[in-house]
Amino acid sequence: MNKLSTTENPTAPAVLVRLRIAITLFFALGGFLFAGWAVRIPAIKEQTDASPGALGLALFAMTGSAVATMSFAGGLCRRFGSKQVTIATAALLSVSVVLPTFTHSAPTLGLSLLLFGVAYGGIDVAVNSVAVDLVAAMNRPVMPSLHAANSLGSLAGAGLGGLLASFLSPTAHMLLLAPIGLVVTVVAGRMLLAHPLPGSHGTDDDSPVRRLLPRFSVGVLLFGLIGLCAAYSQGALDSWVPLHISEDLGGSQGVAAAGYAVVQGTMTVGRVFGVRLLERLGQTRVVVFGGALACAGTLVAALAPHLPLVFAGLAATGIGLANIFPVAIARAGALGGPNGVAVASTLGYGGILLAPPTIGLLANEVGLPLALSLISFMVAAAATIGFVVRRR
User: Fold this and answer.
1) What angle do CA 254, 158, 360 make, to 5 degrees?
2) What is the enclosing helix (H) or strand (E) of 176?
3) Which one of 180, 280, 290, 303 has the minimum C-beta count within 10 Å?
4) Are 51 and 102 in contact (CB under 8 A)?
5) Which of 115, 126, 133, 145 is nearest to 189 (CA)?
6) In order of start, what are the domains of the chain with their CATH numbers?
């Protein structure tokens, strides 16, 4: 794939590099703050004295508000500008991460998480919308590297949280993260606003009706379904692989955690090298071959009786899955702008929500190993749809 010449693209390469750095920082910030909060959930549960069911409802308030926000965030980006919405939601995420740590009951925890979910859902759509414009301006498929920054931010947030958990209360921990988030928002936001990005969607939208709810098209919906299948698979792996290793295969808690780390680590590595992979093979082959590899990997991980084989299957799954969701978001955004990103993100996050309960219900009937085989069906579906929409 050839880069655009300077006569075709008025944005200088140096400017695009600075914009890429800024967008990368926002991707990393989202993962960093969310992971920092997530590792303190056990302490928050103890602080609020919430039962597992009550805690689940409180967490559902966060995910529910995130999905609801994703559904109309594309309209906000078209109305106010994707850059502006990215900066505003990043600032809101940095502040709202502190609020749950002040609560002392499950209902107040749920209420505080509503705002956190709004911020998380908003920045997910907005920063991906800006990233779609960056991909078009650079004429390079850099979306996987940006999603890799999110994964690295998550690893950093979780690692720092693990180190601080023994020394700081959840409130002190989040009060440390909040200013970090605000500083990153100011620095990256200034870089983002300092330079125009060709094709960016903002208040110059000349559509006759500026609707907040996303507009559907066949192409956007199909790429959204690819995102749903990929996100469902990742959500199922995150939720059930450690339990499969510990209960079905007799692994220790440390080995179970290592299984989770293998999936996350290989996905991150796959995304780091995803740009070169996409440039060399093209998007269709990356989705189809990646889906086929993940399909085989999940079957091995679910059905193999020995841990070494399971870990090999998990590594193959992580590599195969790595670039499917970023490609789906990029293509949906290229076809539908911020509304396309909103559709794909909403469907993708919906897949993450569906994964834990559906695998759990199926496991009650046929056992967890066979239930996990459902993941192979989902990634096979992603690969099939990816082949069908190859001309889009």
Assistant:
1) 60
2) helix 170-194
3) 280
4) no
5) 126
6) 13-194 (1.20.1250.20), 218-388 (1.20.1250.20)
Q: What mean pLDDT comes out for the span 36-48?
A: 84
Q: In whole angstroms, how far apart are CA 309 and each of 208, 251, 254, 259?
A: 56, 13, 17, 11
Calpha distance 157→271 (Å, rounded) = 18
* pLDDT, tens only, 84-118: 999 999 999 999 999 999 999 989 999 999 999 99
Give the rounded distance of the alpha carbon of 390 from its chain centre. 23
Answer whether 287's CB lies under 8 Å from 226's CB: yes
**Token reading at 263:** 């999936």
DSSP annotation string for 244-296:
IIIIIS---HHHHHHHHHHHHHHHHHHHHTHHHHHHHH-HHHHHHHHHHHHHH
**143-152, 169-178, 289-298, 354-363: least confident range:** 354-363
Contacts of 312 (CB under 8 A, 6+ apart): 297, 300
As a whole number of angstroms, the distance between CA 309 and CA 295 comes to 15
Helix, strand, coil percent content, the chain, rounded in steps of 5:
80, 0, 20
The C-alpha atoms of residue 41 and residue 43 are separated, in whole angstroms, by: 5
- Rounded to an integer, what distance in angstroms lies between the CA atom of residue 261 and that of residue 97? 24
Structure-derived torsion over alpha carbons of residues 24, 155, 276, 336, reported in degrees to the nearest 10: -50
Could you please report the per-residue DSSP string of 206-257?
--SS--SSPPP-HHHHHHHHHHHHHHHHHHHHHHHHHHIIIIIS---HHHHH
Q: Is the dihedral of CA 384, 387, 388, 390 positive or negative?
A: positive
pTM of the model: 0.81
The answer on pLDDT for 8 being more than 80 is: no
Lowest mean pLDDT among 209-213, 271-275, 298-302: 209-213
Query: ∠ CA(303), CA(326), CA(240), 5° rounding?
Result: 30
Question: How many residues are present in the chain?
Answer: 392
Residue 23 to residue 192: CA distance in whole angstroms: 7
204 membership: H or E segment, kind and range = none
